[in-house]
Amino acid sequence: VLVAVDYFTKWIEAEPLACISTANVQKFVWKNMVTRFGIPYALVSDNGLQFTDKKFNSFIENLGIRH
Asked: Which residues form the Integrase catalytic domain (predicted)?
């Protein structure tokens, strides 16, 4: 399960995923966070492999998100 919480509104977004890959995390961030709440200032994660991947880091850097 991938979970995101909007710090300001405390709104929770969760999505059950069979495989939490970098591509799935990118889709989740775009679909459930950026399009609903706008581009976040920062992203806090557990530093799993999908969050430390070069593709994911370039994706969030291009959006201007700190990690």
From this structure: 1-67
Are residues 25 and 17 in contact, defined by beta-carbon separation less than 8 angstroms?
no
Q: What are the pLDDT tens digits along the chain (67 aa)?
A: 999 999 888 999 999 999 999 999 999 999 999 999 899 999 999 989 999 999 999 999 999 999 9
pTM of the model: 0.87
Q: Do the beta carbons of residue 31 and residue 14 sit within 8 Å? A: no
CA 46 to chain CA centroid, Å, is 11
- Written as six digits, the tokens of 57 are 């880091």
With contact defined as beta carbons under 8 Å apart, do 63 and 34 qualify?
yes
Compute the distance between CA of residue 35 and CA of residue 49 in angstroms, rounded to an integer: 24
What phi and psi values does residue 66 have, to the nearest 5 degrees?
-80, 145
